[in-house]
Amino acid sequence: KGWDFWFIALILGSLAFINTWDFPIYVGLFSLVVTYMRFKEFGWKAERIWDFLKSGLMVGVTGVILFLPFYLGFSSQAGGLLPSLEFMTKGIHFWVFFGALLIPIVIWLGFQLWQNRNVKALLVGLRFALLLFIGLFAASLLFGIIIYSLGNTGSSMSASSNSFLTVLGQKMQMAYSAFANDVHRTTDVGVVLQAALLRRLNAPGTWITLLLMLAGTWALLGRVKADKSELSNIPLVNEQNTDHNTITIRPFIAIILLFGIALSAFPEFFYLRDQFGSRMNTIFKFYFQAWILWGIVAAYASVELFTRLKGMKSALFTLIMMLTIVGGLAYPVVMLGNKTNNFKPVTFTLDGNEYLARNSADDYAAMQWLNEQPLGVVTEAVGGSYSDYGRVSTRTGMPTVLGWPGHEGQWRGGYTEVGSREMDIKEIYTSTDWILVSSLIERYNIRYIYFGPLEVSTYNADGALFAANFPLVYQNNGVSIYEVPGNGGEVTP
């Protein structure tokens, strides 16, 4: 209502600007909380579904409108939804990733259920969780069967005299080919479905964990009416009343826990299609959000358990949490020496380029010189992500023809804009055809040609063509920089 609505729409809308996947996730969480509060007040009716949809649509649409300039130039690499038949998370991996959060959460959830001792609510939660998981798995299997059927259907449609049906048939064949050949590497749908089932039965750790957590959380949320009656018997002398605050906050914590379960369970059945051809990006985006939400739940659970447990139970929980923290710190402790080279040499600096000055002094000196020169497009070796490639443009701010190709494709929703740039840069460094090289240099408005150790190792080039045609404007033991007269400014599209 009023300014509250606009503030919520502004905050949630800004999430898309920061990370697009966050926006629908947190709009969904907001709508779920609103719906739950309505359910808590008025009970379950069909109107609760409308409450969920209405709150989501109002905040979602308003959030989009508030950041409309961003969407006008936005393109996504997401290409639809696919069933996750080939991919699943093994229990050991799930617990390694979430274990530090799951341990206090599971103990807290078990403690709440033990305190309630409501077998009926627990059975209802278990039935709901089983039906939901079986339904989602059946839906993913059915989805897979439908995709496999696209091959024959698309083949028939592509032979049609109707241009629309022909194009549609071709797209259906492409979808079938990508799913059957690239992901599952077989055209036998029976083999795929059988393997999907056996894979989950042989490694059930993740889905059993999520199923039991969902059952317990659903049972806990079923305690709303009982909690309301308890509230009436608790005198609210002041706002510091622990029992009163715990009962009112607990349902909200359970909703956050429930949403984290949904985010973790979704990739077990479906994933968003993108350039990776697997569910890697879906796992990253969904687990990232689940980690944040479960981090809140784990913090609350730990505080409540430390507060409410007494005697031996408190001592045992303290021991478990100490072991959990120590286990969670295993990686930073073990890898500290590896990542810091055992603190040799000892250096205290906030300069992110300092290591370059120490390990690649020639590159560092050349980049320092470039930082003092007029703006211009610099060309350098192109290679894989998370490597030394793109080092010059990154550390000088100079525009370059192409950074990390994989990331450029992701950011731009495909490789159309990237085009032939990677091969063009290779031609510039390796070709002996001066006409071809000079035309490519002019095409991209290149001003500085950087020739260092990475360019030599990547292209096995000697730079003779540059030395014969362009002035050498900088040189040290390992780096030569040539300047193209007349070129400057930004890269030509």
The strand order across the widest sheet is: 3-4-6-5
- Give the amount of beta strand, in percent: under 5%
User: Which structural class do you get from the secondary structure elements?
Assistant: mainly alpha
Beginning-to-end CA distance, first to last residue: 47 Å
Largest sheet: 4 strands, mixed
Domain count, please report it.
3
Mean pLDDT: 86
Helix content: 55-70%
Total of helices: 22
- How many runs of DSSP E, i.e. beta strands? 6
Stretches where pLDDT is under 50 for at least 5 consecutive residues are 231-241
Order of helices and strands: HHHHEHHHHHHHEHHHHHEHHHHEHHEE
Chain-wise SSE layout:
Elements: H1 2-18, H2 22-42, H3 47-66, H4 68-72, E1 81-83, H5 91-116, H6 119-158, H7 163-183, H8 189-202, H9 205-221, H10 224-232, H11 242-265, E2 270-272, H12 280-308, H13 311-328, H14 330-340, H15 354-359, H16 361-370, E3 377-379, H17 391-396, H18 405-411, H19 421-430, H20 434-443, E4 446-451, H21 453-459, H22 464-469, E5 472-475, E6 480-483
